[in-house]
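Annex B. Sample input.
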Amino acid sequence: MMSEKKLLSWIELSRSALSKNIAALRGLTNGKLIAVSVKANAYGHGLSQVVRLLTDDPSVDYVTVHSLEEAEQCRGAGWNKPIMVLGPIPVSLAAAVLELDLEPVIFNRQFLDRLGKIAAKSDRQVKTHLKLETGTHRQGITEVDLPAFAETYRKYESLKRPYGASMHFANIEDTTNHEYAEFQLKNFRSLLAVMNALKIRPDIRHTASSAAAILFKKTHFEMIRPGIAVYGHWPSKETYLSYRLKGGQNDLFTPVLSWKTRITQLKQLPPDSFVGYGCTYRTTAATRLAVLPIGYCDGYGRSLSNRAYVLISDRRAPVRGRVCMNLTMVDTTDIKKVKLEDVATIIGRGNGESISVEQIADWSGTINYEVLARLSSLTTRLIVP
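Annex B, continued. Sample output.
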């Protein structure tokens, strides 16, 4: 693997931080099954790298992905435990469920029927998870739909009944008022009763995202499906506040990811010099500018123009001018002894100073999920202790 000394931009993944976060979640769940979400390139961390790390952790029972392509990558990275596919699989590709030994989440009866036929011909049993609509109104089936799905399950010995039943909370992160989450949980229990009456009772139930897993034990059932918390980030400020108000500890999670680059040019600018496209920044004094080889194609958003900071020599250097597709300029005038190819930390911690994903999200007017998910898959990921 290439050393960071030969790279101009790279992402570091902390093995110990990932293990700590999983242990923290495990400690909240009293031994429930844990299914770590690795969708969206493992929340920007690198799917194959994270899967390899999870393979070494016996406490992780499942990984969850959104797509068939992600499931294939997981198998290619050496994951031989269960994979749950949360998103749609084309009906024409239903055979891949058997080929890759997957557990699809079901919300499409045509797909379920096709899967039952293929499994029956192969004399195989397939585990599926029925997605119940409780109030998010994305993927999921309603009470009206359940009898038809039950009929399809009973039609095929290869299916019998769903192995799991699931739902997803719509408003558990962005508020400290959890009435709607309680409403959805009530709906979930009601739909489970209907499933029982239709004789398609699931073996396991799972509803808990990171926020639900952190805040509400009654959402844990037999399995939790954490995502962003595994990577060391709180789902929202409101989730953190709710947890702390309940007496929870401050250091529950540690960020796994750091992003670093190198200065590829230093230049002296006189006063009244414009920087970057659109002439959006103008120097007011002599300025030493550093050019960094990262931009919005790497996931460093254009919305950070003239707003964000990076760390150089453990000090904050402000972004000047517009973030470009491949380049970003920062002001190093007040930082001593800066030289070519010095490291600049885009996300991460220095000596007494840090730039967090959450700060970048605030500067960008978005959420930490998006900042992470948009990190380019082309940037080299390095696993560090």
